[in-house]
Amino acid sequence: MEYRLGNSKYIKSGGDTEILECPKCKEKVRFGVFMNYERRLSVENMIDCNNVYFLVCPKCTSFFTVDESKGDNFRKGENLSIGNFDLKDLKKFK
Q1: pLDDT tens-digit profile of 47-71?
Q2: Which of the four pLDDT bands, split at 50, 70 and 90, describes residue 22?
Q3: How far, in Å, CA of 84 to CA of 28, rounded?
Q4: DSSP letters of 40-77?
Q5: From CA 44, how far away is CA 87, in angstroms rounded?
Q6: Cα–Cα distance between 21 and 6 in angstroms, integer?
Q7: What is the four-CA torsion angle of 62, 81, 16, 57, rounded to 10 degrees?
Q8: Which residues, at least 6 apart from 8, have a Cβ–Cβ distance to it below 8 Å?
Q9: In this structure, are residues 50 and 65 in contact, taking their beta carbons and an 8 Å threshold?
């Protein structure tokens, strides 16, 4: 199964979250936050660029994503912007 994690070939590390509970393994861990870009052609703007944020559990290596606004706030230094209820399963690649 393939998942959409952006389409840039460079993935940037954004640091670690505060201690959160992993929805899969139920361990309390600091997730690693990573960022990638997703670029698309659009009619209004020639190229539409969005940030894709994904988190990795260090215990069970499960992947999760968060909204772009939550990830942007985390990148600006707001460590508490990502919480347990913000973690979402990845979207399947179509």
Answers
A1: 666 788 889 999 998 889 898 899 8
A2: very high
A3: 10
A4: EE-SSSSEEEEEEEEEE-TTT--EEEE-HHHHHHHHTT
A5: 31
A6: 25
A7: -10
A8: 36, 37, 38, 39
A9: no
